[in-house]
Design goal:
The protein has 4 helices and 4 strands; from the N terminus they run αβαβαββα. It is of the alpha+beta class. The chain has a single domain, classed as Glutaredoxin. A 4-stranded mixed sheet has the order 2-1-3-4, with helices on one face. It comes from Fulvivirga sedimenti.
Length: 107
């Protein structure tokens, strides 16, 4: 999972692949619970989706732009659009199902 700066964030979320963004903070307990879940998710989806973590304390403008009220907040972007979002801890299986809805069909 990559930390990101604003310029590359816009490039990332404009991807054809779904991009799961974990808006989080180091002081947040539930955010720390998301780390192993997202690691497992990455092993399940591989290169078909991008998963990034955004520290809301280091990226305040980005957090304000997307109206992040609490952490963790997860959002799925594709081609620059927000496709899905939810605050709180989400388990790996529901996240996998959500991402698969936006993955291109395999030939």
């Amino acid at each position: 999972m990559a930390e990101t700066k604003n310029a590359s964030f816009d490039e990332l979320i404009n991807s054809e692949k779904p991009v799961l963004v974990d808006f989080s903070a180091v002081w947040c307990g539930p955010c720390q619970m998301m780390a192993p879940i997202l690691k497992e998710l990455k092993t399940r989806v591989g290169e078909d989706a991008v998963i990034i973590k955004v520290d809301v304390d280091k990226n305040r403008k980005l957090a304000m732009d997307y109206r992040i009220q609490g952490v963790p907040t997860l959002m799925v972007f594709q081609k620059g659009e927000v496709k899905w979002g939810q605050s709180g801890v989400v388990q790996v299986t529901p996240l996998e199902h959500i991402l698969k809805q936006y993955m291109p069909a395999k030939a």
